[in-house]
Structure formats: C-alpha cells, structure tokens
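User: Structure please.
Assistant: Input sequence and predicted structure:
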Amino acid sequence: MKKVVYIALLSLVLGCSKNPEDFKQHLTGYWEIKEVTLKDGSKKEYTYNDTIDYIEINDTVGFRKKMKPNINGTFQTSKSLENFVLKVENDSLNLYYKTPFSNWKETILHATKDKLQVINQNKDLYLYQRYVPIVVN
C-alpha cells in the first residue's frame, strides 16, 4: 500500500512540474501589482495602483513600460521602457534587463493568463494580476 501512495505522490509532483517555456505565452499584456514580499518576509499589499506595467514579448526579447490608466479606457504612457532578453536556464525563465543606468535579472516563477509571480535579484517576490479596467457608466 505504501508503494502505491508513494508512486501516486511522485506522479503528482512530476505531473505538476512547470515548464518555463509555457510561461512566455502569458506575459504579454497589462499587469497590476497586488503584493510584494520582501526578502525579510515583510509584505506590502497594493489595493490601488496609479500605474500598471505593460509587458510585450516577441520570441526571446521584450520590453516593459509603465502605463497610467485613464478613466475613459485610454492610457498615458511614459516615454521610457525597459528592454529585456528572455532565457530559459536551469528550469527557470529569466528576464535580463539592460538600460543605460543599470542591468538586472528577474525570474518568472509562475505565469498564467491572470497571475504573474516574479522574483528579483534581491529576493523580493512580486505578485501581479492581469489588469482589468474599471468601467464607469
């Protein structure tokens, strides 16, 4: 009986392995930060966001841009954007950013059509949800 349970648990764990290549299909779009968990374990929840992130990828490259939603459904956009290169390394999807001011890496831990989980080099964990515009009639 123990062998059956062990095999079932092993199958479940292996069957739930996440392929980082699969995360790419969910990245493009508008993302709103919901929560940050800092390396020390402290959390900050965001109930309101003045800006959101727009991410767009094309194969192995992409960019992220800050956007400010307007009440009429349009966006104000910043003039700057952060370019990145996507690389699958050691079963992880990594984003390598390079700007004139800095270079850094972020790792996509999980991505679905509605949720995005990212950890940066400082070990700060960011939880995003897909942005849904507020409709005012």
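Residues 73 and 121 are 34 Å apart (CA to CA).
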